Amino acid sequence: MKLARFIAVGLVLAFLTGAGVVAWTRDTPGDGVPYVTDSRGRALILRGFNTSSSAKSTPDALPEFTEADLQREYGDMGTNFVRFLIQWRAVEPTPGTYDTKYLDKVAERVGWYAKRGYHVMLDMHQDLWGSGITPEGGAGNGAPGWATHLDGLPVATDQPTWEMYYLEPGVIRAFDHFWNTTGDHPELMDHYAGAWKAVAARFKDEPAVLGYDLMNEPWGGSVQGAAFESGPLAELYRRCIAQIRSVDDDSWIFLEPQAVGANWGLPSALPHFDDPRPGPPMIGFAPHLYPLPLDLGDDYTAGSKEWTDRTMGWWRDNTLRTARRIGGPVILGEFGLDMTRPGAADLVNRVQDLGLSMSYWSRDPGAWGPYDDKGKPTPLVAIYNRAYPRAIGGVPRKISYGDRSLTVVFDANETGPSEFYLPNGGTASEGESTWDPSRHILTVKTKTTGIVTLTITLK
After folding, report:
1. Rounded to an integer, what distance in angstroms lies between the CA atom of residue 250 and that of residue 212?
2. Is 252 inside any structural domain?
3. Is residue 300 assigned to a domain?
4. Distance between CA atoms of 314 and 264, rounded to whole angstroms?
5. Is the pTM of this model over 0.90?
6. N or C, which terminus of the chain has less Cβ within 10 Å?
7. Which candidate, 327, 275, 266, places its Cα nearest to that of 7?
8. Domain range holding 62?
9. Residue 432: is it exposed, middle or buried by C-beta count within 10 angstroms (0-12/13-18/19+)?
10. DSSP at 255
């Protein structure tokens, strides 16, 4: 275990000892869980993939993914959501110049999802700043070369794990310049916010685009923790919100916390952000979940399983606290693991039991994805092809699973019928039901006011 990971374990153990983490349970208390709503006001539960990691390294910054691949995913797993990766390097290849041809190609792929009724969240992805951190260009992704300033500081390429690049002096300096903690490049954050304005201007009239994920897993360089989240990161988000709202009043804007710590369940210090749009604010929270025991290489078995469940309870509680402070809905932007590892199937089911909107990492072929390098389904397909409510005609209070059932308790609010994805069909405990076998969707009309307890018995 590397030094950085020993430090991480020490911090988490100290926090757990002092805070007393609540154990995670299978039922999902819906009270206070905020959801995105559709145009009718129904609560949406989104289920899909990050598409995809391949976009990090392709020359055109587009994923190695076809419309036929999407159709297969839709048919195999009933997904209705995608966190679609885009790259700053492709949006703004030179300072102040935005590549409309790239955005057109992204729009073409968004159209594939739109035809199938998906919701799309565009994610400005980065890891390790950008490919310019090494001469070979094979380590980082996201930022353009013109925005990469290492000041001659080293970046060792013999890293045991990719995360260790974050501790290299050159990488830290590149981030410090972006956050303007050096004072040498105050223009970089404005360029980034301007790139988001260009994206929003292109997609503001595309109904399938639900919203924008402003930055993947922010890293503060030499500034970390609450000082980073409430300082430079909050400043970037304010600038991006202002630029997006100058052209798009109707899309959701999603914020991520600092990844280190928050991904494991530590609290976030992100503050509340004002939304200048007319009407209610549309700013949400999109954290990631990588429980620390699994991130350190353990399997979801035995003692590690108990420890992981406790940290997941901690993650959920802190996520909801932050979402309430921000004042918006939650989408779990990333979770995932090697599906060949012991206990992997149980872990994916546990995360689905949380009842949150989510996108699995990732849609790429391999042991983590739904299909292997030859296109054969991995165990993930059967696990992710699970019944879930896609739209609820009210405010959810609780979503829970039995052995062969799915129960939703909600405050009906005259927003319309509820819809359930059911792989093999099922029957509703009350109301008027309509089954669409081609989409595997059960639509249920219940009473339109008051508390509804609706149980779907699964076939």
Report:
1. 11
2. yes
3. no
4. 9
5. yes
6. N
7. 266
8. 50-264+278-294+319-386
9. exposed
10. E
